[in-house]
Amino acid sequence: VQVVESGGGSVQSGGSLRLSCERSGYPYTRHCMGWFRQAPGSEREFVASLAGDGTTAYADSTKGRFTISKDNAKNTLSLQMNSLKPEDTAMYYCAAYRGDYCDGYAYWGKGILVTVSS
To answer: How far apart are CA 13 and CA 87, in angstroms?
Structure first.
């Protein structure tokens, strides 16, 4: 199983970015996937998830600004990030869980950098 993130980069405060995560070599396209991030000197934190039944969850800090979605046909997860703030600067990691629920074992991508300048 491979999990590969794409779409990161640099943007000014208030701007937008769209991250993508492709899961390959895994046959169960509806299984939960999610996004986490880790800023320098901080622990990895939850950003958003999309469970097998379509239920979404967001961190309080991203609710209303970020939107998670999934194309099951392409086994690809997306994260639309709007109204970005400097505090959103971090490495963003995609997690692909082995089940409909967003817990338990997950395959992880290597991460992609998002930098938001003020």
So the answer is: 10
Q: Which residue from 118, 19, 1 is spatially nearest to 66, judged by alpha carbons?
A: 19
CA distance 74 to 67: 18
What are 28-71's pLDDT values in tens digits? 889 999 999 999 999 999 999 999 999 999 999 999 999 999 99
Work out the angle at residue 100's Cα, subtended by the Cα atoms of residues 69 and 47, and round it to the nearest 5 degrees.
45
Residues sharing a CB contact under 8 Å with residue 110, sequence separation 6 or more, in sequence order: 4, 5, 93
Are the beta carbons of 8 and 76 closer than 8 angstroms? no
Helix (H) or strand (E) holding 97: strand 90-97
pLDDT > 90: percent of the chain: 93
User: How many angstroms separate the CA atoms of 21 and 94, rounded?
Assistant: 6
| Residue the block writes with tokens 């396209």 | 29
Nearest to 31 by CA among 105, 78, 100: 100
